[in-house]
Automatic annotation (TrEMBL):
This is Phospho-N-acetylmuramoyl-pentapeptide-transferase. The gene is mraY. It comes from Gulosibacter chungangensis. GO terms for molecular function: metal ion binding; phospho-N-acetylmuramoyl-pentapeptide-transferase activity. Pathway: Cell wall biogenesis; peptidoglycan biosynthesis. It is found in: Cell membrane; Membrane. It catalyses: UDP-N-acetyl-alpha-D-muramoyl-L-alanyl-gamma-D-glutamyl-meso-2,6-diaminopimeloyl-D-alanyl-D-alanine + di-trans,octa-cis-undecaprenyl phosphate = di-trans,octa-cis-undecaprenyl diphospho-N-acetyl-alpha-D-muramoyl-L-alanyl-D-glutamyl-meso-2,6-diaminopimeloyl-D-alanyl-D-alanine + UMP. NCBIfam families: mraY. Catalyzes the initial step of the lipid cycle reactions in the biosynthesis of the cell wall peptidoglycan: transfers peptidoglycan precursor phospho-MurNAc-pentapeptide from UDP-MurNAc-pentapeptide onto the lipid carrier undecaprenyl phosphate, yielding undecaprenyl-pyrophosphoryl-MurNAc-pentapeptide, known as lipid I. PANTHER family: PHOSPHO-N-ACETYLMURAMOYL-PENTAPEPTIDE-TRANSFERASE, PHOSPHO-N-ACETYLMURAMOYL-PENTAPEPTIDE-TRANSFERASE HOMOLOG.
Length: 369
């Protein structure tokens, strides 16, 4: 518990105090945001605002995690390291995209397929490395089964070792690509993706800590709830790294909220999406991610629906503009109103996800029977 608090505090202090330093540096480097020409006119005033702010909280979260495990005497585990790998790997993809935008003086950087290729490479390495690690209880870091609130009976290895491994990699690539792009799509208003990510990643911090307290093979378990224990690799470390990221995001939000003095850019949004996917996979809650990250699902879904309807009807639109947060802006909602209401929706989804997680444990343990 001490390590969790230390990680959150260091992450928050790092971004809260040092973000102004990065803002000045990015201004000198002329790393300014370029705005979509077809977007809301109110956004034109944001042109030139420093971008690539994801560098700040990714660096802050990484430092916070290592300091927390060092000060607590625990030491890093494969869970913390591989979550950071997913976050840093996607941050690099986002940084290249952001840098190209700045260099070309336009709002387009990497092509869509180039981004996806990078995401596939990072998530495939994550999957293949994760399948190799097991802890003292022989619990794998990355499971080969599809999970909801814990692993289901559907295990890809039923198709054989080689085919099963390939299918696991494909499954993880799909989860990661969808999640990182969903956060990227949602990052369209000041503080929107930052606040929503605090709720989602914070939920996995709570889940990780609960799994630690109810881990199979530990003396913390009450004999009456052994059947509801969790077979997860180092869940406490997952809670620590989640706290480090959430703390860093809270400090960053101080500078990122409207009117934003810095944007996270694709550097930050892709990094957060990669971390979210990693948490869901490592905590064996892959399908529960659809609930916890419900706001990201809705925002991305609005883009898919808009494009499909546009093609089917030959040019008609459901929304004034997609993603849906821009639709409400064009309807006359103030940007701050849209952000706060979307945060509320994101928080509700996170609470529902945690409630479903706890309800499953309650039924499994017999607490509610």
């Amino acid at each position: 518990m001490i390590a969790i608090l230390i990680a959150g505090a260091i992450g928050m202090l790092f971004t809260l105090l040092l973000t102004p330093v990065f803002i000045k540096m990015f201004n000198r480097l002329r790393w300014g945001q370029y705005i979509r020409e077809d977007g809301p006119k109110e956004h034109y005033a944001k042109r030139g605002t420093p971008t690539m702010g994801g560098i700040v909280f990714v660096l802050g979260a990484t430092i916070a995690y290592f300091l927390a495990v060092w000060l607590s005497g625990e030491g890093p585990t494969a869970v913390g390291l591989i979550v950071l790998f997913m976050m840093l790997g996607h941050a690099v993809i986002g940084f290249i995209d952001d840098f190209l935008k700045v260099r070309k003086h336009q709002s387009l950087g990497l092509g869509g397929w180039q981004k996806i290729l990078g995401q596939v490479i990072v998530s495939s390495i994550f999957a293949l490395v994760g399948l190799q690690f097991t802890n003292e209880q022989d619990i794998p870091l990355v499971s080969s089964a599809v999970s909801f609130i814990r692993d289901t009976d559907f295990n890809f290895m039923m198709f054989g070792a080689l085919a099963g491994t390939i299918l696991v990699v494909i499954w993880i690539v799909l989860i990661t690509t969808a999640t990182s792009n969903a956060v990227n799509v949602t990052d369209g208003l000041d503080g929107l993706a930052t606040g929503a990510s605090i709720f989602a990643i914070g939920s996995f911090g709570i889940i990780g800590y609960w799994q630690f307290n109810q881990a199979c093979g530990t003396d913390r378990l009450n004999s009456s709830v052994v059947q509801a224990c969790y077979e997860v690799y180092a869940p406490l470390d997952m809670a620590i790294v989640a706290a480090a990221i959430v703390g860093a995001l809270v400090g960053f939000l101080w500078w990122n909220t409207s009117p934003a003095q810095i944007f996270m850019g694709d550097t930050g949004s892709l990094a957060l999406g990669g971390a979210l996917a990693a948490f869901a996979i490592l905590s064996r809650t892959e399908l529960l991610l659809l609930v916890i990250a419900g706001l990201f699902v809705i925002d991305t879904g609005s883009v898919i629906v808009q494009r499909a309807y546009f093609k089917i009807t030959g040019g008609k639109r459901i929304f004034l503009m997609s993603p849906i947060h821009h639709h409400y802006e064009l309807k006359g909602w103030a940007e701050q109103t849209v952000v706060v209401r979307f945060w509320t929706v994101g928080g509700i989804f996170a609470v529902i996800g945690i409630a479903m997680f706890y309800a499953e444990w309650s039924f499994m343990s017999g607490v509610l029977t």
